[in-house]
Specification:
single chain; alpha/beta; TIM Barrel; eight-stranded parallel barrel; 13 helices; 47% helix; globular
Length: 305
Amino acid sequence: MAARLTGLVAATHTPFHDDGSLNLDVIELQAEGLVKAKVAAAFITGTTGECSSLTVEERIAVTRRWTEVVKGSPLKVIVHVGSNCQADSVALAKAAAECHAAGFSAFSPSYFKPANVPELLRFLEPITAAAAGLPFYFYDIPSMTAVSLSMVTFLEQAPAKLPNLAGIKYTNADLIQLQELLRLDPGHFDILFGSDEALLAAWTLGVKGAVGSTYNFAAAIYHRVLAAFDRGDWETARQQQAESVRLVRLLCQYTYMPASRHVLTLQGIPVGPTRSPLKQLSAEEQTSLERDLHASGLWQVLQAD
């Protein structure tokens, strides 16, 4: 069984130049920032990494760079290889294995959708086999894929087909199902929670690891949440979790993806703009966002203690 993946895992942005081309040099800064923030791992080329806007070659280049820069550091790299094209996912999984990533992940195809768990497993089987030596985490994100299958059924049926299954990246608002997953085979599978604004609720239910985009620039908030949880200081834990909600609400006012990229840039990690069709912030919006971060007190909240 794979080593447990616990703590905060940052779903990283893929860095771009202003013209939209890859800016691989920034990845070293991203990794340094995550190590400094005491984040356990980087989840690369996922939703936050705009995987569907990257070519296979670009995704492999990003994987190579990340696995190069983390050598000798405590930071792990989990590579997302999901795609609507099974052959592309197989190629990406092979690259993750060749680059000695710590693990890999894939979501469901979302154009032609699997109708049930056996069909999903049939799609995933050759992908997971392409990196059989790496732990695999299925990425459940029905809000993006529009595929909403029972993850309990998945976890019951998947081990026979996907022997390197290590767990689920659970970006799903169903906390009832989350409890069932945590109790299905305690201690064997990692259920990595994917909704940053509800981390405290998930931790209370027994989650031990979480993957999220705000951990790139706001890990300090969540470390305070978890430290307060550990010492039984519920008031502080709830207050800090509320700061996370405030932060995300503000970023969503400007459109979350480009706004989150700008926050990282303000922190000295210039990940650049989004790729089309996602929105880009105008200069006026960038200035307004900076002003709102300071006026709301959220900029101070982002800083480590």
